[in-house]
Amino acid sequence: MIGLIKKIKFDIKSDRLGPDCPFTHWRLFFKKEMTTICKKKFLSFGENAEIRPYSFIVNCSKISIGNRVVIRPGTMLFADNRFPDKGKITIENDVLIGSGVHIYVSNHAYGKKGVPIIEQGHFDPQDTILKKGCWIGANSVLLPGVVIGENSIVGAGSIVTKSIPANVVVAGNPAKTIKNLS
User: Fold this and answer.
1) Which of 122, 128, 132, 149 could pair covalently with 166 via S-S, beta carbons 3.0-4.6 A apart?
2) What burial class does residue 128 get, using C-beta atoms within 10 Å of its C-beta: 0-12 exposed, 13-18 middle, 19+ buried?
3) Model's pTM, two decimal places?
4) H or E element at residue 33
5) DSSP character for 123?
6) How far is the C-alpha of 47 from the C-alpha of 146, rounded, in Å?
7) What domains appear along the chain, each with residue ranges and CATH number?
8) Which residues are annotated as catalytic?
9) How does 108-119 read in b/e, with b if 16+ C-beta sit within 10 Å?
10) How far is CA 96 from each of CA 33, 138, 140, rounded to the nearest angstrom?
11) If 0-12 CB within 10 Å is exposed, 13-18 middle and 19+ buried, where does residue 138 land?
């Protein structure tokens, strides 16, 4: 019973949301409850924004969500709380994020030859920004420091390693511009 009480307290106080925190995750199934918990946990949470159930969000307090943003199930947002001034995820207004998208602000360090990656720590985090009106297709991965330009589209399954300008469609691994939007 003590373990259950500790888990409930952890889920409520932790800086995360997701199925691994069942005592808060259930709230994502109900719009009013979802809005209430998201306004408490996120750096900012816009009007009519939605975090759908089965999304994983780590370090919510370093993530800003704009108005009318939709984050579909299976998406994983990983902000970084090691530094107060970097490691944020900013999602501006009217952004659509498909199922299974992963957004990262830091990565494992790997520069020491002969030392296991697990022992090398992490690179410093870089902010990741999704500008107004962009659409991130299902199962895409956005790596640290990228900015997705206003009204741009990231095709499903793409790996975005560099910032994307406004009004383009990108796709592939690594993602490349395949079309300009007029």
Assistant:
1) 149
2) buried
3) 0.93
4) helix 31-41
5) P
6) 25
7) 2-180 (2.160.10.10)
8) 108
9) eeeeeeeeeeee
10) 21, 10, 12
11) middle
